[in-house]
Here is the input.
Amino acid sequence: MSLVRLTIKGISYSQTQSGAYALVLSEMEGTRTLPIIIGAFEAQSIAIALEKEIRPPRPLTHDLFKTFAEQFQIKLKQIVIHKLVDGVFFSSLICEREGVEESIDARTSDAIALAVRFQTPIFTYENILDKAGIYLKAEEKFNEEDDELEKIELIPDSEVSEMDDFSLLSNSELETKLQEAVSNEDYELAAKIRDEIDKRS
Here is the structure.
């Protein structure tokens, strides 16, 4: 059965499940996307790994796993989303140590959080994409103004208070608030501030 390589297209707040997020993967050579519902912690962990500028003062669980693996010369070669049962995706970590390869079961959200940190390729099988994949329309794929899936949005717009409006702050004030948010381990706030800074650059 042929493997299809995927890439992370984005994370958005789930409109169907309260407190959950939709991780959207897309095939690298094709137009299909694979949406996966994940929890808030895993969404935050993936987003932090993608946002290079945000560095937690203490390692998150997935950072600790990476450090542990590297300490014992364990290489994460790839992750494979290998099964879909009743809407739940099952994944494997393909690891190697001293020339011996092992497959370890993992939740898909954890596997992808590790893949981002290890810069490891993500794969799934053709039959899973056939079953759960969604085809992007041509205008959705090529319209640069429609970036809904490209954004990593950790806070739904409906929950953003007036106090979180950073448009009136200067760049230096935003940088200060960003550092404070990271120091306080408030990564949702840090991501929002980073989005405001990115808008101005």
About this structure: The first strand starts at residue 3 and ends at 13.
